[in-house]
Design a protein that fits this description.
Elements lengths: L4 H22 L3 H15 L3 H10 L4 H14 L3 H14 L4 H13 L3 H14 L3 H17 L2 E12 L10 E4 L2 E4 L9 E17 L2 E13 L7 E13 L3 E14 L5 E13 L4 E13 L8 E15 L2 E14 L6 E13 L4 E17 L6 E15 L8 E13 L6 E13 L1
Antiparallel strand pairs: 1-4, 1-16, 2-3, 4-5, 5-6, 6-7, 7-8, 8-9, 9-10, 10-11, 11-12, 12-13, 13-14, 14-15, 15-16
Helix pairs in contact: 1-2, 1-6, 1-8, 2-3, 3-4, 4-5, 4-6, 5-6, 6-7, 7-8
Amino acid sequence: MPLNSLQTLALKIAIPALIGLWGASSAPPLAAQSLDSQISQLLSAGQLEAAEELLDRSPYTGGDKQFFEARVLKAQGRLPEAIKLLRETIRLYPDHLNARRELAHTLLLNGEFRAAEHHFETLLDVDQNTQMRRGYHQFLTTIHQNKPVGVSGRLAFLPSTNVNRGTTNTIFDTSLGQFAIDPNSQATSGVGVELGVSGYFRRIPDPSRRVTLQWDLAGIRYEESRYNKASASLALSYEKLTATGDWSLAPFYRYTWRADDADNTALGLRFHHRTRIGARTQLRLSASHERRWYPSQSYQNGSISTAAVSLSYQVAPSLGLTAGLGFERGTPDADHLKYDHQRVFASATKLWQGGLRGSLGVDLGKRDFVGIYPLTTEARADSYYKVQFGLSHSQIEVMGFRPTLNCSHTLNRSNISFYDYGATECQATLNRNF
């Protein structure tokens, strides 16, 4: 949907002021600041030939040269060419914050709302400039008003060494003696295929509030049909923007069908809050509470409550670090399934020259159960660690689908032999927005 003429005019008026802020925020040497200011003034005044001549005589090389060339193309109305050059600049120089700012705005002017939204959201995380972040919120409001409906699809391949989280043990020690563990409860490898479609309907009552109805449908199929499952979910999110961040509240409904007769329905509420507590640091809080019902396994009926707090530090536009704590409590009807869960986690996200994006994370935790486990004299107690990494590349696209790869290795240790297991698995996903 193209921008209407009034919105386009407002955006074109707003961008020269933002360009001035961009030059100041990057803090180059004094001579470079003066040259940047001259080029910006010439572009704003429509003196494109003079801007090009000054650029040709400038000492800029590499990313700065491409950046200013793209700005000239943009001022000439050659938006697709400017977008291509700005993307190339970011690919080669991932810390070039001004190029990312310019790309986000150029995408918006060209009507590429989903791509522009992605870059403005990224800028909210990596940009330390308070004034610029206010501008990003304004642009996001414009995008959301012009893109009230969205749909995306995904195709994923899910190889796993342990689809069913089965144990590697063969013997279960009980108060009555030792019993052989059923092969169906032992580790089984497999490859699943997931097909999913999701979307949203969005309404903007005013620039500081958003109401979004989100939906998702997904199905996973394995060679062994007993592991097949499908799910449908619906959530209504209310989001409020603040001077330093945002918060949201979302009631949700989810139905899960499983071939092993563990079908369940969940009804709950999610809360999320993000606030900037320093130029480079953000604090995130999240919590949820849901009630689950199992028609065929009523002993699992009950509630699950979660909470997490984390700090994110942006070392550079291309490198971010996160660390936090998480808590979870499960209260199903069966006493031996009630538990408390504590975890610590940390991750790093890096964007390399060339367009490769990677993440590496670790997660350590333990689960302490309440009731005595059947046929034993003690409650179950687990501890685990999980290592995970993800990869994507901005230059790789398959028929409009963008691939991502996420892999993990989990090792769980338990005093109940059924829950001693390890699992290495990946999720290779193709995503596309429509």
